[in-house]
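$ fold --in a.seq
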Amino acid sequence: MEWLVRMKDALELMESRMDEQLDIEDIAKAAYSSPFHFQRMFHMLTGVTVAEYIRKRRLTLAAQELAVSPVRVLDVALKYGYDTPEAFSKAFRKVHGITPSAAREPGARLKAFPRISFHLSLKGDKEMDYRIVEKGPFTVVGKSIQLSTRDGENTRRIPQFWAECHQDGTVGRLSSIAPDKELLGICTDMQHDKEQFTYLIAVEAGAGAAEEGLISRSIPAASWAVFPSVGPLPGAIQSVWARIYQEWFPATGYEHGEGPELEVYPLGDIASEDYRCEVWVPVVKR
């Protein structure tokens, strides 16, 4: 309940300052959270980033003003954080499908991105297994791709990337480099303000194991909350991810540790009802 109140306070702050400069530090402070943890929680719970939510809410309010008042387009653009009419027009058209000037015309069709609200949902009828693992720094070797979280691009692109890496032999190469290690799906270099991150398909191996077309990356030491996933992919592991952010984080004294997130995939039939894999999330005690 305390967590719910904090998230509502943060939303109230955002809504009250849509026409002002919004700093993520202030928003996160309203939720008694680190900026990284708040942004990750918000994205996982709502499906949109904080930046995307603010952008779409501002363009919704801007459209309403243009439709009912004679205010200049330039003034509306500046009010909602756009430096030039051109930048405002481009963003406006992307959301509403028409120019800001066309929004004044009678019968103009506009889109509204509604205000998000959080409601208390009683859960806990199903136990959630986890363990805390202390692991020192290690190196991975693999193939990476830069992804955007805007408009859910990452949810579409990651499965495609896995399919490409199977088809071009990357997965087979990684398995031969470290035959005793599981395949890893790694989200790292998360830049919430820019709505992008790096995704790797990799294995744990020394930097010298990197072959042509592969890269090596260092994963820092961390305390990891490790969650088992049992069932066919991707449904089973997606359910685990949802429960981590909807149930586990709000119910525990942990926050995200701001490091990479891992999915650990042993060999096996990923379509099987008893396929087992794991989610590793870096955590710190609040």
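$ fold --in b.seq
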Amino acid sequence: MLNLLSVDLGASSGRVMRAAFNGEALSLQEVRRFRNHPVHISNRMYTNVYGIFQEMKWGIAEVVKTHGHIESMAIDSWAVDFGLLDAGGHLLDLPRHYRDPRNVNAMREVVSHIGKSQLFQRTGIQLQPFNTLYQLYAMVQENANLVAAANQLLLLPDLLNFFLAGEAAAEFTNATTTQLLEAHTANWDLDLASQLQLPARLLPDIAQPGNVLGVIRDHELLQTGQLATTRVVHTASHDTAAAVVSVPASEQNYVYISSGTWSLMGTVVNEPVIGDLTDKFNFTNEGGLGNYRLLKNVMGLWLIQEVQRALEALGEASDILRLVHRARMAAPFPYMFDPDDPRLLQVGNIPDTIRQICVETGQRPPADSGSLVRGIFESLALKYRMVLDQLELVTGQHYGAIHIVGGGSQNQLLSQFAANATDRMVITGPVEASATGNALVQLLAIGEVAGIEELTQLVRQSVEPVSYLPRDTDVWAGGYDAFQRIVAKQAAAHNLTI
């Protein structure tokens, strides 16, 4: 039995997973889970990367204590956030969190200077205020001295790899999310950086996924006596890229939703798809394992997490099973809204913001938690239908099934709503999709798997999916018509254009 270790960092929690490979199938065991919340200081939001690194090391030590030698390990995380190192390899400041409010104005300024279509044509990346491009621009405007003192910029998993192995590189799948790469060359867009007076000297060399970065050099971990030869692998370090590796698809053309804090919905293509429709619909082209992921960021279960936080503040019950039961019992379509309203991106009272949207669009606001949560689930499912329609227009393909992977795939109500809204079979699993994909790429890197085709076969041997067939499709078709009208009203009411 071969022991691997996957560190999977999500926007709300982190996991250290032991992956066991017996030559025919891969199985995962959660060893350590920890909460991951931004740190608020004044009006700024930070990611506590030191706390994450310590939690990660505790998890690694637990795996060694129980299972002995670890053949390899790798880290995947959410995208776009980064840290700055000085010439001595010291972190200059905690990384700012992608929900930091400064990014919105930065995006407006960059779009005004470069142009929306020009940015997309160059990079193939969806305009989102949290992209690294806008974060770095905001940092230069806010604290030029900090940037001037920096020697290198490393995205979060690359930064943790540097702490762990002392080697610095920008892993490809995560680097593509920055909006700082040229889409067709997969190299840093030095001209774009120059136009915006961004320090291109900070950008490291780009490394492809599926390669060994080095070995563990952290002094504390080496004291275990079991990790001196453990290889640190560049997996597909963007968690969505790793999740897509774990999709148990038998068909060549398929749609996936990586469901968690965000819903990342798209398909796999050979090359970036850049054209008028992808620009119009604000799709993005992000790197994968030997391919690209044509997808759209849709707000996900962050909305439910924020509802839970608001209910807890009021002293009300907020456990997810109870909320899902209340939603199941609530009347259908109590209200609808576009989950991607930028007001819902920021930390705040999400239920109040949703009620405000209802008033703006001429709907009755939800009066209880069951209706509130049902409306969120239904609106997410209807947004999936909208993105599916757009995706089929862009690619000219018809997709017969949707694969939902990640933690959100456990939500049976949302999965059924997704099948109803899209009139497609929904296939769910694996739950720990990013950690699974992370380990699969490790097997490729250390030579246990010969190639991507063998990797895909291994996925199907290791995963037991659950399927949902569409129901009440006529009712949901009428709901979709209403949803489209309300989304248009919502956009007009709040001027949801850049």
